[in-house]
């Protein structure tokens, strides 16, 4: 029995669209009501989550879509997954929700076992975790950890803060508030808060009108595809970008304390970093004493065929911090060096110190992925889907530019010739019963759940073929 059949015996056999436009009239009516108390303008449609099941999402009009977007890549196992429902009904979940503990001051006696369930699926080389509330929060917390670590190395880990540091920090002045930078990459997306906004460089709308730190953005490699036919050119591109990284580290007006990178830039257009590039960044960060942070918020938890995308690169020694959220339904960062634990309490702290209810779900998700061999399934289905897309690329080469994601599970994307054509394709796909997302200006990105199977790929490719032929 397939995983989808096991989980979802009542999953629809195919999409069904009953309205002539999306959002349909009922969705429009409900969104108008919602819009009086909440900003509903970005909404695709009003969703009926009670009726959504498995790989299918249902809207208020009764349209049933095959979902290849999965809540912006954040649903790991499909809708109304029975294993997660069981975890949600557990006594530990009731305690976490009803008596939500302030974990830093009043940790629950079941916190250690809950964290052990998360650490069971930590990236190779990482054995500690600090929990947060969202992907952006995870990155902000990682920056705090990196700055504290960086300054502790300079000061001495057990050295007391000076009177000058204690006094100046209350005025937001040096040396208590040091001028330090985090290096990120052009087209990166790391969140929409203040520090995370400063390292985000994907679209203006993500960060307009709020103050930003003056931090450097390096060039992220832009490869030619297919990769196997462009190895020499792509290696030259890696070396070009690595030189820019090192030049920025050594010449920036303030010290670069940390570097953050997505192994595949998602919002920025599904740009891939090679094993060579990611390892070379490790070499540079060690050479210059820079903390190396990998942002696995969107790439993590199985979608590329490994639990964590950067594990494809086998970076040695392991990176310093790995941030996570989305498909794990929890958030935070993994690390391995105990010196990333601040030398005094209350430095990395807030009321909640994460969300135990979400941690319980994260542990259940990880266990289901392992027990049902969903990493292997994702790799198998991704290869199958990619071959189908290559066939369509041969037929419509202009509509499938830079097809990428081969051997990376279902983490697949391609470009259209123009933003208008890309947007038209996404709209047409919905009318053909497939909910698909875009990224950057030209790209279509596929982000199905890990329960997506060959039968779902066939349905999608059939709808895609029709939609492309109508452009």
From TrEMBL:
SUPFAM superfamilies, alphabetized: PLP-dependent transferases
Keyword terms: Aminotransferase, Pyridoxal phosphate, Transferase
Catalysed reactions, as listed in the record: 4-aminobutanoate + 2-oxoglutarate = succinate semialdehyde + L-glutamate
UniProt cross-references to InterPro entries, sorted A to Z: 4NH2But_aminotransferase_euk, Aminotrans_3, Aminotrans_3_PPA_site, PyrdxlP-dep_Trfase, PyrdxlP-dep_Trfase_major, PyrdxlP-dep_Trfase_small
Top enzyme category: transferase
Superkingdom of origin organism: Eukaryota
GO cellular component: mitochondrion
Subunit composition and interactions: Homodimer and homotetramer.
Protein name as annotated: 4-aminobutyrate aminotransferase
Species of origin: Lachancea thermotolerans (strain ATCC 56472 / CBS 6340 / NRRL Y-8284) (Yeast)
